[in-house]
Write a structure and sequence with these properties.
Elements lengths: L1 H4 L3 H20 L1 H9 L4 H10 L3 H24 L11 H17 L10 H28 L15 H32 L5 E6 L4 H12 L5 E3 L7 H11 L6 E5 L7 H9 L3 E4 L7 H4 L2 H14 L5 E4 L3 H9 L4 E6 L6 E9 L2 E8 L2 E7 L4 H16 L4 H10 L8 E5 L2 E6 L5 H11 L6 E5 L9 H15 L2 E5 L4 H10 L7 E4 L2 H11 L5 E5 L8
Parallel strand pairs: 1-3, 1-4, 2-3, 4-5, 5-6, 6-7, 11-15, 12-13, 12-15, 13-14
Antiparallel strand pairs: 7-8, 8-9, 10-11
Length: about 550
């Protein structure tokens, strides 16, 4: 190609424009990179996001390219013959529309922001290089064979964003595999050097994070405990916990174990090799990735299968966990509420908007307890943690003290007071069970009640019916409803209508920020607001 045969001003301009477009393409690809990270770096997570959002992101990219290309072609036609410099003016339109697109994407509310990890930095760099190389290649080809287009071909590159991210991901796969093996090997070696470490795995469709925190408080009465922070429940998350958080003086390691498909927990167990376990629940959460409830059951049971001679605590209140208990032939402990067959049993519950009082019986010994935590679900988690803590040598009196010191987890039935309003923040995530629990908790409060919710997601073919049922339950408790996003709007509305809910008190908003603005219009002192669930970023 004559274009590449010598170092010319046109070639230098092409290189500079390619580099600039590489940066622009990286930012345009930011949403897909974010979704890829949230989905555990699986391409199907991007595909699911595009499907859930009805390919809105791709449609906007097509509009961006169409507007940019149209403006560039018109400007080039009008300025043709006025000199080489003027042929670049059309690029201003592309840069302008791209910047507007990027700003709109990055200003959208995010539940879990993109984390610039080492892996993400490597992937981002490959996206930049690939975008730059692709841009330069297109410029070279069109300059040689379609010179009338000049550099206008840049305007179509955003359409290729999906392809660039996918190819970049697979380019990085071998690198990430080697990197992952190095970190995992380091974690395994560290664990081998701590043979007396008490390792505990906790899994369940819901309740595992809260149970983890409760168990940490209880075991800290006797042991030096390392707990996996936040929602570090993936292979690399737990590897990071072992490599960075676990200290030589720790006696106990508590690991939350998450899964989105069969085999995930088995892999985590091979890494951690837990001695003891807690199964909080088995429900229809994440059916969109598991496919069937049977697969959910199989996945959670992988933790039970990994335990040899340690204790395994099961939740008597959850049908799936109870079934697993009945099938288990190992050293099992049933924990629950108002069940005399339970090793750890909670009875005589008195609950109000300030918390609960109850009796806790373990191994035929009983203490009266008080907690600030709201809801029966939290009491289930307390029973599970108490059963294992007692079995590991924590005194019943120490367990009672730990229960009184428990604080609500952020965004999990957390009570806030703000500008004369009572806010129940249950926005972290939601299952059918936790939503019912949140609404029962809301019903304990005095005052007009408002529910803000996008509904329940990731329930597969049960999603619509579950959200209709959610709507009927809301109608029994609340005076007003704000439905966030289109995802479950029709299903929740149908449930409300079945209960003859006043349609003038139903509000529809696009996102949570707009919902908060709407609350300023419709609330008064003394109102109680429940934020029930928040859509994952893959639905926004």
């Amino acid at each position: 190609m004559e274009f590449l045969s010598k170092l010319s001003p046109q070639l230098l301009i092409a290189i500079v424009l390619s580099a600039i477009n590489g940066v622009i393409m990286y930012f345009i690809a930011g949403k897909m990179l974010h979704i890829l990270q949230l989905g555990g770096y699986k391409i199907k997570s991007i595909n699911a996001y595009l499907k859930e959002t009805k390919f809105n992101y791709l449609i906007r990219l097509i509009i961006l390219c169409f507007l940019s290309a149209a403006c560039m072609l018109v400007s080039n036609a009008l300025l043709d013959g006025h000199g080489e410099f003027w042929s670049y003016i059309g690029l201003i339109f592309y840069f302008y529309f791209s910047i507007v697109f990027i700003i709109n994407v990055y200003q959208a509310p995010q539940k879990t922001p993109l984390k610039q990890t080492h892996r993400m930095n490597r992937l981002s760099f490959v996206v930049f290089l690939l975008s730059m190389a692709l841009t330069f290649g297109l410029i070279a080809v069109f300059t040689e064979y379609v010179p009338s287009v000049k550099f206008g071909i840049i305007a179509i590159t955003p359409i290729l964003t999906y392809l660039i991210v996918v190819v970049s991901h697979y380019i990085c796969v071998p690198i990430e595999f080697l990197s992952r093996q190095i970190y995992i090997s380091k974690a395994k070696n560290k664990l081998k050097k701590m043979p007396d470490l008490i390792k505990i795995g906790i899994t369940g469709s819901y309740g595992k994070t809260t149970t983890k925190h409760i168990l940490n408080v209880m075991l800290s009465k006797k042991y030096d405990v390392c707990m996996s922070p936040y929602s570090f429940n993936t292979p690399m998350g737990l590897t990071k916990v072992v490599n960075q958080y676990l200290k030589p003086n720790n006696d106990v390691l508590i690991c939350e174990m998450g899964a989105r498909q069969v085999g995930d927990i088995s892999y985590l167990c091979k890494l951690i090799q837990p001695k003891h376990a807690i199964i909080t629940s088995v429900s229809n959460q994440h059916l969109s990735t598991f496919g069937t409830e049977q697969n959910v059951y199989k996945a959670k049971k992988e933790l039970v299968d990994a335990i040899n001679d340690g204790y395994i605590c099961f939740n008597a209140q959850n049908n799936g966990s109870k079934q697993m208990f009945d099938e288990c032939t190992k050293n099992k402990l049933l924990c629950g509420i108002n069940n005399d067959n339970c090793f750890a049993n909670i009875t005589n519950i008195e609950a109000n908007s300030n918390g609960s009082t109850f009796d806790l019986t373990i191994n035929e010994k009983t203490v009266s307890c008080q907690t600030k935590l709201l809801g029966i679900g939290n009491l289930e988690d307390i029973a599970l943690a108490s059963g294992l803590a007692f079995s590991l040598g924590v005194k019943l009196s120490e367990i009672k003290s730990a229960i009184s010191a428990l604080k609500p987890m952020p965004h999990r039935l957390e009570i806030l007071q703000e500008n004369g309003l009572t806010i129940i923040d249950n926005s972290y995530n939601a299952s059918v069970e936790s939503s019912n629990e949140a609404l029962n908790t809301l019903n304990m409060f005095v005052g007009d009640k408002i529910v803000v919710t996008p509904g329940l997601v990731e329930l597969g073919d049960k999603e619509y019916v579950s959200n209709v049922n959610l709507g009927t339950k809301i109608a029994e408790v609340a005076n007003k409803v704000i439905i966030v996003n289109e995802t479950n709007k029709n299903a929740i509305q149908e449930g409300l209508k079945q209960m003859n809910f006043d349609e003038s008190n139903i509000y529809f908003v696009e996102n949570l920020n707009i919902a908060k603005d709407k609350l300023k219009e419709i609330t008064k002192n003394g109102d109680v607001i429940l934020f029930e669930n928040d859509l994952p970023d893959s639905y926004i």
